[in-house]
Write a structure and sequence with these properties.
Elements (H helix, E strand, L loop, with lengths): L1 H26 L6 H12 L4 H9 L8 H6 L12 H49 L8 H43 L10 H13 L4 E8 L2 H8 L1 H18 L4 E6 L2 E7 L3 H17 L2 E2 L6 E3 L3 E7 L6 H17 L5 E3 L1
Length: about 350
């Protein structure tokens, strides 16, 4: 019984720590590379410590930490190259899968301990049944029968509680598996699908022989936004563009492919209809006048360019993307804030 409780407590503690680190990374839009993860672990493991208080002061008002902030606060930067943004987005899903695997192993240990408890219970039950069966030939009294029955009832109740706890654990594991699958295919900043989800969606639609079109969209002069106003403002712009594409291309797969680049996977729709949806999104973005939240100062014009192409039967995702990307660059060369189709 002690082993069962210990295993359950260990699993709960591990999950609680992982959840706190994950929430810290997500809240600050930080990729889960070793530096960020180790820094998040230091915060989560000592939430009342000096480092946690420094982070709280620095992020007061909803400000997010940057890599420079982490370095200044004591995060050690590896000399190895940092993962690409696509790699970072996939890493959070991989971390969740790894954590879920740990939970599965803990659950297996829990079930094994319960199995041993049940085996011992079965032996005791058989012994008590034999004692009752032989009551006429033994010195077993009514008091003994009551005592034996009470012990059996107590063991049944204990087993029921263990099974209930195991059922809750199974439900939590199922939710974590669903969360891991979702996060492995989702961009943590915009909430859109990521590159992996786009490629898997392409394969799925191709397998069912749907007509497919692919659009590649890229924010114009995005570097100017980051350099002039900072990455926090750049993040807001990315989310705004992603939201506009998702709303106007509703029913189709919109993904953040990497950096300031988005892709839209259209299926079972005429190419001119897909173009109209993209044009509506582009026009809405260009029409808006974005302002800085803190000062209400104008951010300037924000636009995106796009390339749209129909996919041939059996064509690989790489070839389709490359052709759409070429059309995107043609749109950039033609003055930006426009859509090329081919």
């Amino acid at each position: 019984m002690h082993n069962v409780a210990h295993l359950a407590d260990r699993t709960a503690n591990e999950q609680s720590m992982f959840d706190r680190v994950r929430d810290f990374l997500t809240r600050n839009a930080l990729g889960p590379d070793p530096v960020n993860y180790e820094f998040g672990y230091r915060i989560a493991s000592n939430p009342d410590g000096e480092l946690a208080r420094a982070v709280e002061e620095l992020t007061d008002g909803g400000v997010r930490l940057t890599r420079n902030d982490i370095e200044a606060l004591g995060g050690v930067v590896s000399t190895a190259s940092t993962p690409t943004s696509a790699g970072q987005r996939e890493a959070i899903g991989q971390m969740l899968v790894a954590q879920t695997q740990m939970q599965v192993e803990g659950f297996q240990d829990l079930v094994a301990a319960m199995r041993n408890e049940a085996r011992d219970f079965g032996r005791d039950l058989a012994a008590k049944a034999n004692a009752i069966r032989d009551i006429s030939a033994s010195s077993v009294s009514v008091t003994d029968i009551v005592r034996l029955t009470s012990a059996m009832i107590e063991r049944v109740h204990t087993t029921e509680e263990q099974l209930e706890a195991a059922t809750r654990e199974a439900d939590e594991l199922r939710q974590k598996l669903e969360e891991a699958r979702d996060n492995a295919q989702r961009d943590p900043l915009t909430g859109l699908a990521n590159r992996r989800a786009f490629e898997e969606g392409y394969a799925e639609r191709q397998a069912r022989q749907a007509s497919i079109a692919v659009a590649v969209c890229d924010i114009d002069h995005f570097k100017r936004v980051n350099d002039g106003f900072g990455h926090a403002v750049g993040d807001r712009v990315l989310k705004a563009i992603g939201k506009a594409l998702a709303e106007h291309c509703d029913g189709h797969l919109v993904a953040r492919y990497g950096g300031e680049e988005f892709v839209v996977l259209f299926a079972d729709i005429a190419l001119d209809k897909a173009r109209a949806l993209l044009e509506t999104a582009r026009e809405e973005v260009a029409r808006k006048r974005y302002r800085l939240r803190e000062t209400d100062a104008p951010l300037g014009e924000v636009t995106f360019s796009a390339g749209l192409t129909a996919v041939g039967e059996g064509e690989s995702v790489g070839d389709a993307f490359e052709r759409a990307d070429g059309l995107l660059y043609a749109a950039k060369a033609d003055g930006r804030n426009c859509l090329k189709i081919g």
